[in-house]
Protein 1
Amino acid sequence: MAQTLDRRIYVIGDSVVLGARDAVIAALPEWTVTVDAHQDLSLFGALDILTQLRPEIGDIAVVELGYDDGANLVAFRDHIDRAMAILAGVRTVVWLDQRQFAPGRDAMNAELRAAQDRYPNLRVVDWNAVVAAAPDSVYADGIHLTPAGQARMAQVIRAAVVSAATTTTTTSPSRSSSKRTTRKSRGHTRRSTHRRTSHRHHRRPSSG
């Protein structure tokens, strides 16, 4: 018997995707979208959040993290593995790599790409290539998104989500009617150039 794809999309990230929050939600009108974006959030710091919210994550999760992590490859690999262990059972984890704004970031992106060999449900999106082709996507810091960059990130995420949805051959029963609660975003004190804001936003698809 055919099953219906879970229409919930969970997006977790730092202030980069926080800037694109509204654009991401608008780009996915047919989905129930949760953008869980926190100021200064590292991949390591996201592990507790993912653990707590795992029951609310559907078939597709989107991760935009890494800028607030150090370029220690052993630690970064461990954090990737721990995140993917938490997300075991999520059919597709879409993970945007980093804009290579500083030394060591290319190696971190390579670690992320290598993780696809360990996790069949992981799909890495080459955000760095998008910005290289369209430098006006980011401000002078090389990270944060201009309005044009916000629109591009939203479309990149939409393309990855649609691809994941159309290539999923066995899907879970729809749980889009599940009760959802909004939790207060956690504060993060790590020093960063990011704006000191955080937000979790939910948007349900319109009917019809």
Note: The chain is about 35% helix and 15% strand.
Protein 2
Amino acid sequence: MTEEIILKAEPRSETKGGNPKRMLKEDILPAVVYGPGSKNINLKLNLQKFIKVFEIAGESKVVNLKVGDETMQVFIHRLQHNPITNKISHVDFYQFKKDHKFSIEIPINFVGESRAIKEDGGVLVTDIDSIQIECLYTNLISEVEVDLGKLENLNDSIHVSDLKFTEGINVLTSPERVIVTVQPMRTQEEEQAQEEEGEVEAETSSEETEETEEKGDGVQEGDADPTKEEGEKVKSEEKKE
């Protein structure tokens, strides 16, 4: 049985000691809890304890959030970071209902070993590292296993449609989406050729931009537009006739 993840929090007042900047200096993290059919609840909690819980729970495991005598089952839903220090500055918790379906991102856990990598020297290219699903709490899974052993040959791929899920889980990620691919290792000559091709494309784009600007500079503001003068001349001759 999976061990319960417990995190303690306290009510947070917006007026008394609830200044977010002051709280963060004291290693206290502002938080909010919301969910279907419930009001938003402002909370505060110890930042370091939250970081330890987040390392275990991520955004796909249930956290038992204890506020006084009440315990709420929530997910860590969204984190905000300080743009300068990158330190966590706020957290949103999502309180779900056990009899209501909800959508959630489930991390992918890569297992096994690819023959194409081990024997053919292929390179593993990961396209996505999580799957979006919808389910009830009773059907919730904490991760999705992807077996790399299925990648036997170079250029083999595993798609979302190749995964098997238990009954009650609706996969929201497109079934055509590529999860992982084994690509041949490029030679030094191929990498150099690709770099040169990119440089040529950049030079061509720059030249086209310069030509466009030169054409636009042909008629300056205040100059007579030759096409406009020609049109006025034709109209004048028509009137004379």
Note: Helices lie at 20-25, 47-57, 115-118, 188-216, 226-240.
Protein 3
Amino acid sequence: MISRAGLSVACQARIQLRSRPRPVASLSALARLLSSLAVLEQRDGKLNHGSLGAVTAAKELGGSITGFVAGANVKVLAEEAAKVNGIEKIIAVNNAAYNKASF
């Protein structure tokens, strides 16, 4: 069992811990950590412009935006996606297995 003196010490410690200023990360530090991956859909070698909504949403969040495209012969598609305003980097996976949706 805790004595009255022990409770008083615990109460004082709790008050001191609550009154300490807590460190707040600056917005610039948080912005450096923020990044988005936009999965860009394609069909028959053409970029689905509806998937560019992911880029728009990522712009609203801030930070860097990386685009991802996959399929067979996506080099031209990756070059087109690299021209989209806001995308800093493109990841292109050239594999025919991504051409057919299996769902």
Note: The helical segments are 4-19, 27-33, 53-61, 75-82.
